[in-house]
User: Fold nicotinamidase from Acaromyces ingoldii.
Amino acid sequence: MSTTGFGDIDWSGTALLLIDIQEDFISGSLAVPTAEEIFPPLISLLESTSSHDAPPLTFLTQDYHPADHVSFASSHAGAKPFTTIEVPHPSLADKTMEQVLWPDHCVQSTSGADIDARILGALEGRGNVVQKGTQKNVDCYSGFASNDYVSFTDLARRLFSSQPAPGMAPVHTVVVAGLATGYCVRATAIDACKYHLRTIVLTDCIRGTDAASTEQAMRDMEQFGAEFAETTTLASTL
Ligand code: VGL
Ligand code: ZN
Assistant:
């Protein structure tokens, strides 16, 4: 894994993407075992950006599923969480898609879907929430698009608008943190690379559900061109 120095980071065109920092992934039904470890470095970064003249534009993705979502094992008779099945492609009648089945998580209007209050507090109201996974028949790991890449959140449109926030320069760099490394962090970072954004993944502010998916995701993100950094390195460029 190559780690980058940040002498050249241009904060005026940098956005923070905070992925699925929600109760169910921290202490709920799909808890990432070491999720708590991301909070000290991430909160200190958010606090130092808050005191900056122009804090970076910040997006918070929120996994937000209907109660009968296709990704829930409970939606498929006899199926167990953490297994993989083929589900019908939502648009292509003769195709299926691989779907990992999860315990019910981040159900709409439940506290498990709430974004962590410490993160919201550190942002002092500056976060823009991007909901995903809201359609019953398709899962959505990336903050940009559903897993079939037929529907899109408004994240790309907002990042690529000519003035993403009042007075802000166009975005060319994203800093990615959150949960879980093997799924939603991976998919979001890879999509950001595909959009030719400079993509910096904060290694001390991401955690995964299991070692295998986490290690594979680190290799995949690097292959697509993501850079890796620790928060202290990044914060020293503020
Ligand atoms: C995620 C599994 C299911 C994630 C979301 O945020 O990484 N993982 N839904
Ligand atoms: Zn989910």
